[in-house]
C-alpha cells in the first residue's frame, strides 16, 4: 500500500539532511520514483563540508552515476608480505572509482529538473518529531533560522559517537594523487591490497593503488588498527611506499586525501522516531569487515524510494544477519591477533574465485558458498572467536566518532 498522500501546505513529502553520497543518492532515487516534493539540506562551505573524496565499488554494468565515474578496472591485484602476487579477473564485475565533486555536480543537475525539489544550503541543528511528521531546524549562512517540515526526514549526518560494540577497529588512511616522470602504472590493474609495507604491532597495513593513466594514480597507505596516525606518519609511510616499495622515482603529488572509517560490530539504529530515519554510514550502511559503503547506500536508497512509493520498510536492513555475524568474528580475530591479517586476506584471494569473493564482500552469497569460504580461513582461531563472542559485552567506544570529515573516502 502506497504512503503517497498530499503533504500539508508548506511541508515536503521528504526532507533529506546531508548532501554527501548517502543524502544525494537518496534524493536521486526519491525523485526518480516520483516523490512529489523533496528538500535536501546541504551544508554550506566551511568546516562541516568535507573535502573532496573518493568512493569505490564494483558493479556488473554501468549504473546511474556512470557519467561521474573517473576510472574502472576489470583486474585486481593483491600482494603478500613476501611479494608474491595474485592477479584476478573480476568479470563480469568492474571496480569503479568516483570522485565526490563530479558525483555531486551530476546529481544536483538532475535534481534541478524537478520543480518541487529544492536544495537548501544550511546547517541542520536539530531534528525532532512533530505531529504528522518531523521538523528540521536549520541555520542559513546569513544566520537566519529556518524550520523545515516533512512527512519523513532522512538524516545522513555523521553520528557524534559510535554505538556500543564488542570490537571496533579503524580503517584509516592517507592517499596521494601522483604524477610520475615516466610510465609506472598499468591502467588495467588496480592494487587492492599490497602488504609489502612495514606491519604495525597491532592490526595490519597495506598499500592501495588505483591507476588513472600510465603516469598517474591514486596511491594510499592504509591501516586497520585501534587509533589513527598523525598526518606526518602517513606522509612518511607514503614516501616509503612510493619510493622504496613501488620505486616510482621522481613524482609530483597533485592532491591528497585522508580519512577514518570505523569497522565495528556496533548496532546502528536505522529508525530514531516515527518519521525520522538514519541513512548512509550513520544508518549502518558501512560493511563492518571492509569499510565499503557506496554500493550499500545505493541499495538502501532504492529500497527507501520504493517503500515510500509502494509501501514497505523505510528502514531496510542492508547487511544480512549471517554477514554481520561473520564480520563480527573476523574483526574480533583480527583485533586479538589470533589470525595474521595480511596472510588471511592474501589467502582468500588466492583460494576463492574472485567473483564469488566479491559477492561475499557485498553480502550476496548463499549459505553454502559462505561455508566453502569459511573452510578456506584459519578454522580453529575463527571457531574459538565465534564461541566467545556471545559472552562479550558491548561497551561504549571512547574517543571515536562514527565518521570522519572525509567520511566514506575510498569506499
TrEMBL record:
InterPro entries membership: FAD/NAD-bd_sf
Record-given protein name: Lycopene cyclase family protein
Organism: Streptomyces sirii
Amino acid at each position: 500500500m502506497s504512503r503517497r498522500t498530499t503533504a500539508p501546505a508548506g511541508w515536503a513529502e521528504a526532507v533529506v539532511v546531508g548532501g554527501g553520497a548517502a543524502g544525494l543518492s537518496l534524493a536521486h532515487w526519491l525523485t526518480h520514483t516520483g516523490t512529489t516534493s523533496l528538500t535536501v539540506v546541504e551544508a554550506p562551505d566551511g568546516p562541516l563540508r568535507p573535502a573532496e573524496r573518493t568512493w569505490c565499488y564494483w558493479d556488473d554494468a554501468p549504473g546511474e552515476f556512470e557519467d561521474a565515474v573517473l576510472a574502472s578496472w576489470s583486474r585486481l591485484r593483491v600482494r603478500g608480505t613476501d611479494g608474491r602476487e595474485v592477479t584476478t579477473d573480476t568479470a563480469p564485475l568492474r571496480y569503479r572509482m568516483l570522485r565526490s565533486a563530479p558525483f555531486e555536480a551530476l546529481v544536483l543537475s538532475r535534481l534541478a529538473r524537478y520543480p518541487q525539489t529544492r536544495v537548501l544550503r544550511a546547517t541542520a541543528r536539530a531534528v525532532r518529531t512533530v505531529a504528522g511528521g518531523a521538523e528540521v531546524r536549520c541555520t542559513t549562512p546569513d544566520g537566519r533560522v529556518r524550520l523545515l517540515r516533512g512527512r519523513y526526514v532522512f538524516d545522513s549526518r555523521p553520528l557524534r559517537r559510535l554505538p556500543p560494540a564488542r570490537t571496533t577497529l579503524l580503517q584509516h588512511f592517507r592517499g596521494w594523487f601522483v604524477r610520475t616522470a615516466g610510465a609506472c602504472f598499468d591502467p588495467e590493474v588496480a592494487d587492492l591490497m599490497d602488504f609489502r609495507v612495514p606491519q604495525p604491532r597491532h592490526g595490519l597495513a597495506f598499500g592501495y593503488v588505483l591507476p588513472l593513466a600510465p603516469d598517474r594514480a591514486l596511491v594510499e597507505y592504509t591501516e586497520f588498527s585501534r587509533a589513527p596516525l598523525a598526518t606526518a606518519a602517513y606522509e612518511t609511510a607514503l614516501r616509503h611506499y612510493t619510493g622504496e616499495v613501488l620505486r616510482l622515482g621522481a613524482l609530483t603529488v597533485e592532491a591528497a586525501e585522508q580519512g577514518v572509517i570505523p569497522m565495528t560490530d556496533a548496532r546502528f539504529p536505522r529508525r530514531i522516531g516515527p518519521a525520522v530515519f538514519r541513512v548512509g554510514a550513520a544508518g549502518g550502511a558501512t560493511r563492518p569487515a571492509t569499510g565499503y559503503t557506496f554500493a550499500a547506500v545505493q541499495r538502501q536508497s532504492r529500497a527507501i524510494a520504493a517503500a515510500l512509493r509502494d509501501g514497505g520498510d523505510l528502514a531496510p536492513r542492508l547487511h544480512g544477519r549471517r554477514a554481520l555475524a561473520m564480520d563480527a568474528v573476523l574483526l574480533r580475530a583480527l583485533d586479538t591477533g589470533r589470525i595474521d591479517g595480511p596472510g588471511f586476506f592474501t589467502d582468500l584471494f588466492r583460494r576463492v574465485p574472485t567473483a564469488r569473493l566479491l559477492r561475499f564482500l557485498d553480502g550476496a552469497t548463499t549459505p553454502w558458498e559462505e561455508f566453502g569460504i569459511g573452510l578456506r580461513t584459519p578454522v580453529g582461531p575463527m571457531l574459538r572467536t565465534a564461541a566467545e563472542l556471545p559472552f562479550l559485552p558491548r561497551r561504549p567506544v571512547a574517543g571515536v566518532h562514527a565518521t570522519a570529515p572525509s567520511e566514506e573516502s575510498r569506499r
